[in-house]
Design goal:
The protein has 192 residues and is of the alpha+beta class. Helices cover 22% and strands 36% of the residues. The chain has a six-stranded antiparallel sheet with strand order 5-6-7-10-9-8, covered by helices on one side. The protein is elongated, with a radius of gyration of 35 Å. The termini are far apart. The relative contact order is 0.10. About 11% of the residues have low confidence.
Length: 192
């Protein structure tokens, strides 16, 4: 009987190779997954400076048998914000603002803009010869025009031929609304 040579060259079972290939693929995926898990960054703790710091102060209480160590928590007060005084000689005003804000000054087509920046809400002062925004109902008979919505407050007034707009974007946050009201009280027109 004649034997076929091609049958002798073929492996006895191709399923062995297929099974080994599947195992290799599974192990590769598992290795990649483990590498990705090991390379995940550890999140940094978030620290807010408005949270009071708690420190401990050890105090010894003597007893007749032995001295015990008692830890008494001591709360430090919430940091008091500092305030800065800004004066614009160019546009003739001064104002007191929180040191938590960063001041930016820009020139616009109508005049100047002073932005007291804070990530949670800005306060801007626009000064120029024309209004920085259009409102069909602007009425200055009482000396100023106030436009207020849930997220911001805008106050317009005129002095010495200049038009002033103070815009507080408070996003409805009570602390920013309070800061806006104080900013408006502290805003003073200076003689040029």
């Amino acid at each position: 009987m004649a034997t076929n040579r091609t049958d002798l060259d073929r492996p006895t079972s191709t399923t062995t190779y297929v099974l080994l290939t599947v195992i290799l693929v599974i192990l590769s995926f598992a290795g990649v997954y483990l590498l990705l898990q090991l390379k995940k960054p550890i999140p940094a703790p978030v620290v807010e400076d408005t949270i009071p710091t708690i420190t401990t102060k050890p105090t010894a209480e003597p007893t007749t048998k032995s001295a015990r160590l008692t830890i008494t928590p001591v709360l430090s007060p919430t940091p008091t914000p500092t305030y800065l005084n800004y004066q614009s000689q160019t546009d003739g005003f001064s104002v007191v603002y929180s040191s938590a804000r960063k001041l930016y000054q820009d020139t616009e087509s109508f005049g100047n803009r002073y932005t007291f920046y804070l990530s949670s809400g800005n306060i801007s002062v626009h000064v120029g010869t024309i209004w920085s925004w259009v409102h069909p109902g602007r009425d200055l008979t009482s000396g100023k025009f106030v436009y207020e919505i849930a997220t911001q407050k805008i106050v317009d007034f005129e002095s010495a031929g200049k038009k002033y707009t103070i815009q507080c974007v408070h996003n409805g946050k009570p602390t920013l609304i309070e800061e806006c009201d104080q900013f408006l009280k502290d805003f003073k027109i200076q003689s040029l």
